[in-house]
Amino acid sequence: MSVFRGIRSFSVGPIAAFVAQGVAGLRDWRSTPRGPAGLAPDPATTPEPVIQVYCARCLGWRRYFGVHSWIAVKPACAKNYTIYEVTYWHLRRRGSAVATRKRAPDQPWFGNVVKLLAERRGDDVGLLIERIEKSIREYPFAGQYVAWPGPNSNTFVAHIARLVPELGLDLPPTAIGKDYLGRRWASTEPSGNGFQFSIFGIFGMLVSGVEGFEVNILGLTFGFDPFTLALKLPLIGRLGVPRSIRWETKATNALTPSHVGDEVTR
């Protein structure tokens, strides 16, 4: 009997702690700071157009497995950022999962710290914003939302990135749903710079000049980025050398990297 109790306490204890932390996250997020993280240029002092892509850990227990992602745009001389994202609540209330909001793009997501994934700013970004808005209107899963394996917020951002490869977006391995293609089995991968094979976002693989090599098993991503020598693991995310995420476009339509915004190595 004592052996049984020991086994039960060993197995149930970590699970109970895991669930308790998730419940605490549901209860406490309203009391966490909601102010901007200081990652977005102030529109009042930044007349140039800006594009930013963010992610943050999901609400409650789901944060242990994945992230929610969104995209923010600010046309030239605009006084506010426009945020585009997909949520289940918006689908229930409005009939479309695609939500459009005016707010600071780097505010915490239900108390979870945001992470900047990509930024483009400069003279030619206005043209990219037009293409982003067109891709949003063409999003094929606006009437659907499924947390796993998709379509969800990461499916939405990946759709935009495929059609606007100038973003050079490398969604993290914790962005469950980024590989969901619906009934298609093959496509360019989320950065739009390679090839991807995926069966309903559950099984697949991709090879890219941005993401490197990734394998998707049951929606969980395992991969290796040979360009920055980084591992990609489910739950944990990216481990290794950070990559440049901020670029400025010049009048020549060239992209110049800025290492000021390199992502923090986990």
Write the layout of secondary structure elements.
Blueprint: H1 2-28, E1 50-57, E2 67-74, E3 82-86, H2 88-94, E4 98-102, E5 114-122, H3 125-137, H4 153-163, E6 186-187, E7 194-199, E8 203-208, E9 212-217, E10 220-225, E11 230-233, E12 237-240, E13 246-249, E14 255-258
Parallel strand pairs: 5-13
Antiparallel strand pairs: 1-2, 1-5, 2-3, 3-4, 6-7, 7-8, 8-9, 9-10, 10-11, 11-12, 13-14
Helix pairs in contact: 3-4
How would you describe this protein?
The chain is of the alpha+beta class and 266 residues long. It has one domain (32-261). The chain has 4 helices and 14 strands. A 7-stranded mixed β-sheet has the order 4-3-2-1-5-13-14. It has a 7-stranded antiparallel β-sheet with strand order 6-7-8-9-10-11-12, with no helix packed on it. It is globular and about 45 Å long. The chain starts with a helix and ends in an 8-residue tail after the last strand.
